């Protein structure tokens, strides 16, 4: 559980930094100080400036905001889509299951990164929300397959059989009885999916297919500062460092939640802890 607490604490601090930190300085991410081009960190520019005089502190925190929002919305959308599709496929079976499984397998075959890179430039005028939709469309299939398998097992349980005999509508059974019993898996999966979505956004933005100027994200800032990482390190390492810290914190939180919500997960740390406590592994 301490891993979950550590990860949650770091994530909370990152969110506070991203959304409260910009109010601590009078610079915005669009302001330009023409007298301080590529200036090292100082009292006026805490994290220095970039090649055109923009404050790196304001830029990085605005980029962190955007990356966090994209990650959260993508993970939420993909988890909702996966839970509904997987539960319906597993519960109804028959042609519903065959069609959904075929569609899921078809999407898994597509090269998601390549398709997103091709489509996103054509939709850049519609803003970053469309980019979230693209990431979510290719991020739900594996979770849906797991939910489908869990649903096929749950629909044979007594409480589901009892609801069926009472004439409860199938969709109500899915929402009231199936999904709550897979919620622990969905919580852990959604937590880890946030980190994956942020990494996908960062990779696509790094190559120019994600967030577009004048807006910024961690990916665009890392791309802009990569060629000056050795000569002007503050232009690169603040954004890259926050990205690494965020991904590690998400993995810690997901790992801790898995151990807490699913004691039978069989994770090595869980087994070692059980052996120390004299419990069966």
From TrEMBL:
- Keywords from the UniProt entry: Cell inner membrane, Cell membrane, Membrane, Transmembrane, Transmembrane helix, Transport
**InterPro entries this protein is in?**
BP-dependent_transpt_permease, MetI-like, MetI-like_sf
Q: Where in the cell is it found?
A: Cell inner membrane; Cell membrane
- Primary location class: membrane
Bilayer topology reads: Multi-pass membrane protein
The GO cellular component terms are: plasma membrane
Q: Which residues form the ABC transmembrane type-1 domain?
A: 64-254
The cross-references to Gene3D superfamilies, in alphabetical order and at most eight, read: MetI-like
Top-level lineage group? Bacteria
Q: Which GO terms describe its biological process?
A: transmembrane transport
Tell me yes or no: is Cell inner membrane among this UniProt entry's keywords. yes
UniProt cross-references to PANTHER family, sorted A to Z = OLIGOPEPTIDE TRANSPORT SYSTEM PERMEASE PROTEIN APPC, OLIGOPEPTIDE TRANSPORT SYSTEM PERMEASE PROTEIN OPPC
What is the name of this protein? Peptide ABC transporter permease
Native source organism of the sequence: Streptosporangium nondiastaticum
């Amino acid at each position: 559980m301490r891993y979950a607490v550590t990860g949650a604490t770091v994530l909370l601090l990152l969110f506070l930094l991203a959304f409260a930190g910009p109010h601590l300085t009078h610079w915005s991410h669009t302001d330009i100080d023409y007298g301080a081009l590529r200036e090292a960190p100082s009292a006026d520019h805490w994290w220095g400036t970039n090649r055109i005089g923009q404050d790196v502190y304001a830029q990085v925190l605005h980029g962190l905001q955007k990356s966090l929002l994209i990650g959260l919305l993508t993970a939420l959308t993909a988890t909702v889509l996966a839970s509904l599709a997987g539960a319906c496929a597993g519960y109804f079976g028959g042609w519903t299951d065959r069609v959904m499984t075929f569609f899921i397998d078809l999407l898994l075959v597509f090269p998601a990164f390549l398709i997103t890179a091709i489509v996103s430039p054509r939709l850049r005028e519609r803003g970053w929300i469309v980019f979230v939709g693209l990431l979510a469309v290719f991020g739900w299939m594996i979770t849906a397959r797991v939910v489908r398998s869990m649903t096929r097992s749950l629909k044979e349980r007594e409480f589901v059989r009892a609801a069926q005999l009472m004439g409860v509508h199938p969709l109500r059974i899915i929402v009231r009885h199936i999904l709550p019993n897979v919620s622990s898996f969905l919580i852990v999966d959604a937590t880890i999916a946030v980190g994956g979505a942020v990494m996908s956004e960062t990779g696509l933005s790094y190559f120019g297919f994600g967030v577009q100027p004048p807006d910024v994200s961690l990916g665009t800032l890392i791309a802009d500062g990569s060629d000056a990482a050795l000569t002007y390190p503050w232009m690169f390492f603040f954004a890259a460092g926050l990205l690494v810290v965020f991904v590690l914190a998400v993995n810690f939180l997901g790992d801790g939640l898995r151990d807490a919500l699913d004691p039978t997960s069989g994770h090595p740390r869980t087994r070692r802890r059980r052996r120390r406590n004299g419990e069966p592994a």
